[in-house]
TrEMBL record:
Belongs to the universal ribosomal protein uS14 family. InterPro entries: Ribosomal_uS14 (IPR001209). It holds the Pfam family Ribosomal_S14. GO terms for molecular function: structural constituent of ribosome. This is Ribosomal protein S14.
Amino acid sequence: MFNSIKKDLKRRNLHKKYEQKRLLLQALINTNTIDPSLRLEFVQKLNDLPRNSSKIRLKNRCILTGRGKGISKFTRLSRIKFRELAYTNQLTGWVKTSW
């Protein structure tokens, strides 16, 4: 379980490190005004970047348990932990509604 958290943290750090370079290379590849041979060179440089530095490889995980499904983007908690913490009044501003 905690191995998945470490792996996700490693991927996030790699993404943060190479994000600017990746975006620049993608923008240069998508422009139509450059020479095709130069474009191939940019594609090769993009392919040489680590795979785990891509945004696609990131997965939202619960910051407490590492659960990969049922995650709220706002709190970064799984639905189970969110409910548990809300019922014990450990999340400020969240109250159970009843009508």
